[in-house]
Specification:
The complex is a heterodimer of chains A (215) and B (332). Chain A has 215 residues and is an all-alpha fold. Chain A has a single domain, classed as DhaL domain (Serine Threonine Protein Phosphatase 5, Tetratricopeptide repeat, Alpha Horseshoe). Chain A contains eight helices and no strands. Chain B is of the alpha/beta class. Chain B folds into two domains: 185 residues, Rossmann fold (3-Layer(aba) Sandwich), CATH 3.40.50.10440; 129 residues, Dihydroxyacetone kinase, domain 2 (Hypothetical Protein Tm841, Chain: A,domain 3, 2-Layer Sandwich). Chain B is 32% helix and 25% strand. Chain B is globular and about 55 Å long. The chains are: A mainly alpha (215), B alpha/beta (332).
Chain lengths: 215, 332
């Protein structure tokens, strides 16, 4: 297996993720007005802008520095928990140990996603089933690792991840919020997908589209 | 219903309100970096600095309490949203400049705690002398301390820890005072009308015309129970009894009571509520040793109030009585 991604591909993944979020931000806000205070779409829109800026400003950096830069930019959005968690995820991905500073294979990408997830779990106790972004993120990250282990290409792995995130986000429809601001609404949150998990699905849809376009 | 607020561009709310604050109180506060409020006259070196962080749209909290005897830095977030970790780190760095030590006070809300934790991680890695305390005194969260949100309880913590810092107490001593205050206070909120989110123009929650909700959070997070609207006396009694029982206040003890208006509830109503609280305490032979009534943290034009009680000891009382000079709290 020789397929590798570098700065250009990673940049395109984030660019397409930002584009996906930008297209859907009003939908995210509508979802968040059910369980939260209706500002999730605005927060994600600002996070998307910072993802683009992070990529732009570190066009010559190593892959891990590029991820940290994107993460730190997103952390800088004054958007409460969601931007803090997405920023932590991206910055955490940058903690991965790579053999090369310029290229990642499918296993490296899987390990980077796992590192991001570990960084997040230091900051939140939420896990799958709590009706949070974790319901989409955990299956997406698991899908990339599984695809790498099965010897699939990076773009196939990201397609699997996008599908897993989509299914994960849809599964939150039947759940009752147990974490975050929506928790206090309890049963009133049933019947609607969680806004944060929907954002994760958009992120991975963008990652997958970005790579399809680049390869 | 159309939003009727005197605002300009909704994306500039925080910057404009802070600009207004420093222009109105130039002898007390100044801006230090983007949306970070600092004292106009920095504290002498060698004394512990107090830093806080939190969302905006809750004025006068939190930045209105930057000043002598209280906060040194307040990192203001977006409307109802925590500031990002990089700016929190910037606030901590300013507070810890030239080897100073600082105490970070964070209200227990998911976004605030996240940003606080991330900033703390980075600050400690840089070797800065900083410690953090989280306030979580809202009993509506249930028996689990982690689930209890921080409401107006930040105020007595700023006050006593701020006074201790001003008197030259060490970082550990300031933290001990803050923790003692935190452990000995409880709060509860009631809401009768929603507020509109000033950026989106949407109501932040729905409540029936004849309903009230006890236990509602700072942003309209649902509480423990909706009920038919009750009188001031009845509401005051229900809430006070819940608080006294949770804090396990015994006959003969001395407590502080603070009534905080949510934004639209009038001072008339707050005073009528306070009157009943004082009467009930007298009947129960619990001594009302200090009190405060007014607006310390609001949520736009939300109607309702927060009630806070705190068990006081002689040292906490002395620190509560110490001078303070912030834009929205002055004690001489």
């Amino acid at each position: 297996m020789t397929d590798l991604i570098g700065r250009a591909e990673l940049g395109e993944m984030f660019a397409q993720a930002a584009a996906c979020i930008r297209r859907e931000h009003q939908h995210l806000t509508a979802l968040d007005s059910i369980g939260g205070d209706g500002d999730h779409g605005t927060t994600m829109l600002r996070a998307a802008e910072q993802m683009e800026r992070g990529i732009e400003e570190s066009s010559t950096a190593s892959l891990t520095d590029l991820l940290k830069s994107v993460g730190w930019k997103v952390l800088g959005v004054d958007g409460g928990a969601s931007s803090a968690l997405f920023g932590t995820f991206f910055a955490g991905m940058g903690d991965v140990q790579l053999f090369s500073q310029d290229a990642m294979n499918c296993h490296d990408l899987g390990r980077a996603f796992q590192a991001g997830l570990r960084a997040m779990s230091r900051q939140t106790k939420a896990g799958p089933g709590d009706k949070t972004m974790m319901d989409a993120l955990v299956p997406a990250v698991t899908a990339v690792t599984a695809a790498a282990n099965a010897g699939k290409s990076i773009s196939d792995a990201l397609d699997d991840a996008a599908l897993a995130a989509q299914l994960g986000a849809e599964s939150t429809k039947d759940l009752v919020a147990r974490h975050g601001r929506a928790r206090s609404l309890g049963e009133r949150t049933r019947g609607y997908p969680d806004a944060g998990s929907t954002s994760v699905a958009l992120l991975f849809r963008g990652f997958s589209a970005g790579l399809r376009r680049e390869l | 219903m159309r939003m009727k607020k005197f605002i300009n561009e909704p994306t500039n709310l925080v910057g404009e309100l802070l600009e207004g604050m420093v222009l109105a109180f130039p002898d007390k506060v100044q801006l230090s970096g983007r949306n970070i409020v600092a004292r106009a006259w920095p504290k002498e070196s060698g004394k512990v600095r107090l830093v806080t962080l939190g969302g905006s749209g809750h004025e006068p909290g939190l930045s209105g309490f930057v000043g002598e005897g209280m906060l040194d830095y307040s990192v203001a977030g977006g409307i109802f949203a925590a500031p990002g970790a990089p700016r929190c780190l910037e606030g901590i760095r300013s507070a810890c400049a030239e080897g100073a030590s600082a105490l970070l006070i964070v209200l227990n809300h998911a976004g605030d705690v996240l940003s606080g934790n991330i900033a703390m991680e980075m600050a400690l890695r840089e070797g800065l002398k900083i410690k953090m305390i989280i306030t979580h005194e809202d009993i509506a969260g249930g028996p689990n301390l982690e689930d209890r949100r921080g409401l107006v309880g930040f105020f007595p913590v700023y006050k006593v820890a701020g006074a201790a810092a001003e008197q030259g107490a060490s970082l550990d001593a300031c933290l001990e005072i803050a923790e003692r205050m935190e452990r000995n206070m409880r709060s509860l909120a009631v809401a009768v009308n929603t507020a509109t989110h000033p950026s989106t123009g949407q109501p932040i929650f729905e409540l029936g015309d004849d309903e009230m909700e006890i236990g509602m959070g700072q942003h309209g997070e649902a509480g423990t129970g909706r009920m038919k609207l009750k009188s001031a006396d009845e509401t005051a009694e229900i809430m006070l009894n819940m608080l006294l029982s949770d804090l396990q206040v015994a006959t003969g003890e001395e407590i502080l009571v603070l009534i905080n208006g949510a934004g639209a509830t009038t001072l008339m109503e707050l005073l009528i509520v306070f009157r009943r609280v004082a009467q009930v305490l007298t009947a129960k032979k619990i001594k009302l040793i200090r009190s405060a009534v007014g607006e310390f943290i609001t949520t736009q034009e939300q109607a309702g109030f927060q009630m806070l009680i705190a068990r006081m000891d002689p040292e906490l009382i002395e620190l509560w009585d110490a001078p303070a000079d912030a834009p929205f709290f002055v004690k001489r």
